[in-house]
Specification:
The chain is mainly alpha-helical. The protein has a single domain, classed as ACP-like (Non-ribosomal Peptide Synthetase Peptidyl Carrier Protein, Chain A, Orthogonal Bundle), CATH 1.10.1200.10. It has four helices and no strands. Helix 1 crosses helix 2. The longest helix is centred in the first third of the chain and has 16 residues. It is globular, with a radius of gyration of 12 Å. It starts with a helix and ends in an 8-residue tail after the last helix.
Length: 86
């Protein structure tokens, strides 16, 4: 799975969970700075785990600030190597 494809799927999930319009999502900002709240961050983490069939550690996603680009990179790292192609 290419980075561009993962980025689109992550962005779509953010829009679905938070209602933030795609055009307003800044990939260099955290979810919170993009307008999401902590409950939406948890819902997004669960959504991404289901969508990509991965396990995300709370410490990687919730306990430290992570940008949208950081989330994309995290998903790529957690994907099985046969699926992820950078």
């Amino acid at each position: 799975m290419q980075r561009q494809e993962v980025a689109k799927m992550v962005t779509d999930a953010i829009v679905e969970v938070t209602g933030i319009p795609e055009a307003q999502i800044d990939r260099n900002k955290t979810l919170i700075k993009n307008g999401a709240d902590s409950l939406e961050a948890i819902e997004l983490m669960n959504n991404l785990e289901n969508k990509f069939d991965i396990q995300i550690a709370d410490s990687d996603f919730l306990e430290k600030p992570i940008t949208v680009d950081g989330i994309i990179d995290l998903v790529l790292r957690l994907l099985p190597s046969a699926v992820a192609v950078a």
